[in-house]
Amino acid sequence: MTVDAVVSALRATLGERGVLTTPEDRARFETGWRYGKGTACCIARPASTAEVATVLRVCGEHGVRVVPQGANTGLVASSTPDASGTMVVLSLERLNRTIELDVAGRTVLVDGGVLLSQLNQELARHGFWFPVDLGADPQLGGMVATNTGGTRLLRYGDVRHNLLGVEVVLGDGRVLTQLNRLRKNNTGLDAKHLFVGTTGVFGVVTRAVLQVAPLPKQRSVALVACRDGDAVLALLTALEADLGDVLSAFEVMSANAVAAVLAHQPNLRRPFAELPRYAVLVELSSTLPADTLVLDAVLEARLGAFLETAGDAVLDVLVGKGDEFWQIRHHISESLRSEGKMLAFDISVPRSALPAFTADVERLLARDWPAVRLCDYGHWGDGGTHLNLVWNEATIGRAAAEVIAALQPSIYELAVRGYAGSYSAEHGVGPHNQRYYDLYTDPLVKQFCALLGGFCDPQDRLGTVRLE
Amino acid sequence: MTVDAVVSALRATLGERGVLTTPEDRARFETGWRYGKGTACCIARPASTAEVATVLRVCGEHGVRVVPQGANTGLVASSTPDASGTMVVLSLERLNRTIELDVAGRTVLVDGGVLLSQLNQELARHGFWFPVDLGADPQLGGMVATNTGGTRLLRYGDVRHNLLGVEVVLGDGRVLTQLNRLRKNNTGLDAKHLFVGTTGVFGVVTRAVLQVAPLPKQRSVALVACRDGDAVLALLTALEADLGDVLSAFEVMSANAVAAVLAHQPNLRRPFAELPRYAVLVELSSTLPADTLVLDAVLEARLGAFLETAGDAVLDVLVGKGDEFWQIRHHISESLRSEGKMLAFDISVPRSALPAFTADVERLLARDWPAVRLCDYGHWGDGGTHLNLVWNEATIGRAAAEVIAALQPSIYELAVRGYAGSYSAEHGVGPHNQRYYDLYTDPLVKQFCALLGGFCDPQDRLGTVRLE
To answer: What interface predicted TM-score (ipTM) does this complex get?
Structure first.
């Protein structure tokens, strides 16, 4: 039988520890952190680049599909196996020893299986951090493959912006080594970009060279109550003009989103007596020491001046209590889940279009689904909006699947075709949004992917999403 | 005859103004700003994306090669025709009308033929700039195709880091439109990267969407006299830890380079009585207004403190006179040319390796070419060094070509193989460094290029460099 044969062949090279087969051992690899669940034939845990290549060759010979897996924290189910019980999960968790920091170069070479927290712990000892800042604790290889973004993208960019080099094992076991530690290397095609955001379908990222950033010495946070989306944009434009160098987060939370947090997190205090349409979390941070610049004072003064000129577009400003404000922001997702049925989105549109796009969604709901609540929040500085919808199944009298089937495609259509936006701003592509990839991807881009896939993974053994 | 036939066919669609054929009209397209010279059969000047596609189709039908050309300011001869008189230069200069700024989005859509100066003039009216800062005045499409860097890369990144979307006409006339204005769009292969830095061999960049930056409100410049390369790196590390948010240039100039400037630019003042091994130009700039932060004071205090702890590694610090210091920096290249024969380099190595690499070059020269002077300077913050060599032909008693043939390959070999560096840090690839591309490019990367070239430009009509 194929399963037995592939397990034996993998054991022969990876040893006992390198291959897990029992349901108990497989369990944590088969279920994603939040989404995704399936059954694998086994878990292969190579501990070196050469072993990763062997796993891919062995699986190719046995005609078995392979799911590369980092910390399994993705949100589109791309790192979990399907239900067939025939796929091999290739976990990078044992490829996690190298963290080689070059202090004067301000770069670090890491194994693909190193956790973000593990890297940041090491970097902090030298006054650095890797500033792609997420709610989860992914592995660096997975972060490259999914090009994660996060709440400080506005300031530091996504993984791609901080990536100098990669080592990738292609689908058929060949190894592409481009472990440059160079900030400037302008010599034709920069091949690493083929493996960023393509979810491991062309190859498995086994090592990466990253640029790291000096740790900020101070932070200052405010919460600004805005009347509407236009006021939010005016605030963003004003802040960037003066404080662009030190603005590190600009997170927007609707009244419905904040109300859900307050309802489900009794230990969190209500920030405003009356919740505004949008509460904006503004964070400044800087490497500059406090004897040169006091961020709290700068933020307070700038927001005070803005409040005076903004008329009733800005209702209130609270400076300080950064932890409390971030707590509210970080609890939105789980609080909304507790409210009832939820349909989550990870949309982006040009950020100047966020108010108009959101208003269109509100009109659509008011007309066709008045009992569905819009609880939007997100990274407006980057044009991102988690436009989550919440409803009570009993009130609405229809199955959740029916509501989702009606609303999801029309909101994506509005975002992508109506506002030149994206159906996946930062979560990447996977089985959960494959149909929207198929629908919205330029045919020429699919042809590029078919070409690259045919070259990198000629037997088509790798990954859970189809890009061609 | 082919030339007549292709000119007639191009005239039929582009009109009289769209095709230049006389030697006088062709001259400025046939000679590069600094390097590159050839003879074209004609100059095609399409004024729209559709016309660019037509030019490529017509040339394909007539079996004629095409050289895409921006402002012809490149330094590797990739935008000038060869000597055959059979190539068509495809100039983008008439595709220069669109500069569509989205203020709240902080993005701009530009035609490929728009000049950097033209864009920055328009942006300045709204408090923005495009911060890829160069000595030349290139077109934006050319900047994408060659992924230009410049003196502020340390702070703002290269073109790639600021590029959101592109429109490209492939070699056979198909149009790929990816004019996203999105900062977050994580939906598989980001195909624009195939056309960044690949010098137009896969397609011609006709439009681009760029992220722009708020204009700084203040700048402060200092010149620091360092004993050696290790002192330069210590200074860089100290500055980034505290002033990383506002450090916008870190340019290093050897005593030999500064001496050449002083010898040939009599109006420039000698900054230090005794020229140090390295004079470092440090620039801070910030969007923060002067009532929150005074950069001059911050820079003076920080450098003063560094001077106290650095012992005799740092010899002197001059703050202010930014224009004078930048003048010295900007005159190095031409001053060295006036010194005698010159061999120029555009090398990068991991920046922590710059002192060791430079010392190795010095030893190599001392041993084999004692009459050749090392006049190095460059963007040490990015690991870049223009390691220019200067000599007097009479003293050395050999033809310049002979010296170059001996030194160029061995210094590239030392940089690329000895120090994991690059033979082209920011100038890109073109006929001038084709042989080093061939020598140092990973065979797998060449195979990717062959694959992409076969798809984008199946008749192989485009460009002056071969990437496969």
So the answer is: 0.96
